[in-house]
Amino acid sequence: MMSSGDDRDKSRSEELIDEQKSAQGIQKDQDVTQISLSNRGLSRLVDLSQYKKLNYLWLNGNQLRTIDALGENYRLSELYLQDNELVNIKGAMTRLTNLKILMLQNNQLARLEETITEFKYMQALETLNLSKNPLAQDSEYRYYTIFHVPSLKLLDRREYCPRVNILKIAGSSTYWVECVGFFSGQGGSNWLARYVA
């Protein structure tokens, strides 16, 4: 059940989008390529599926707890959701296969596997930031993320240079998958991840 505050937020987000369209001289929804709804105190959004050519979306600095307005925005290449109150993104991003940049830092995402599963089909995803979420405290967080999102080049603002080795264990059907990567940045730390598949 949606509260009147949720209805207000949806109406407010619609008004803000209309203002942006007007300021940019855009008449048709199909011509909208970017929307900025940053720092507006929104807890809910209007459905954005009518913006078929949307490439860039700024929703950072709001009070969003869930995202359910992006199901049809296949062209999105950059999505900024940092500094919200997101607790769950399950089912919200699986269709966003063209994303290259996804900023989710400083939210309340706690379920590592569930969250990373959302990125399964994002083969273009190069930049991901999940820092300052409870899931980033998991000791396997970096390993798990780089293993399951092999296209990453930047994780939590640290460059990642991957090398993957897949070795078959003699006399069995088991494979040893070794992901060796280097994260540059403060301290220049090396990271090594190994998973048996």
Describe the protein in words.
This protein has 197 residues and is α/β, with parallel strands linked by helices. Helices cover 17% and strands 22% of the residues. The protein contains 3 helices and 9 strands. It has helices at residues 4-23, 112-117, 141-148; strands at 34-36, 56-58, 78-80, 101-103, 127-129, 154-155, 158-168, 175-183, 190-196. The radius of gyration is 19 Å and the shape is globular. The termini are far apart. The relative contact order is 0.09.
Would you summarize the structure shown here?
This protein is α/β, with parallel strands linked by helices and 197 residues long. Helices cover 17% and strands 22% of the residues.
